[in-house]
Design goal:
Elements: H1 4-25, H2 46-54, H3 63-67, H4 72-92, H5 118-125
């Protein structure tokens, strides 16, 4: 019984160290930002990131504008859940080579693409006729 606190403290310390190392190694801190480069941390997203970098869409929206819900709490809750699910899928090897669609909370336009938030629609369309 005397060793129980020592074993518990050692176990918690090792878990914290491994968790901290994993967080830093996986660039977990980058997911707290709004930087689209964080999405490219995942290898299956690299082509999509490069395509976004070359597109006109780059000037009007970043990934989180369309792929997370609006609002601080809902945005970061979604990012946390997605981050956990992605890390679990990649760690266990149970992932699809096709990137997931994280825009179910947004409507779809006639082409089946996610609708843009209102604040981006006008800038994306450009000046009218």
């Amino acid at each position: 019984m005397r060793f129980l606190p020592i074993v518990a403290a050692s176990t918690l310390g090792m878990l914290a160290a491994v968790g901290g190392y994993t967080f830093l190694y996986a660039k977990g801190y980058s997911y707290v930002t709004n930087d689209p480069a964080a999405c490219a941390n995942c290898h299956i997203m690299e082509d999509h990131y490069r395509a976004w970098m070359k597109s006109s869409h780059r000037a009007v929206a970043v990934c989180n504008d369309c792929h997370t819900p609006p609002g601080f709490v809902s945005k970061y809750t979604t990012k946390a859940i997605n981050g956990f699910n992605h890390s679990l899928a990649f760690t266990t090897g149970r992932f699809s080579r096709t990137p997931p669609d994280h825009a179910p909370q947004r409507g779809r336009d006639r082409k089946g693409l996610p609708e843009m938030p209102r604040r981006h629609r006008q800038r994306h369309r450009g000046p009218g006729p």
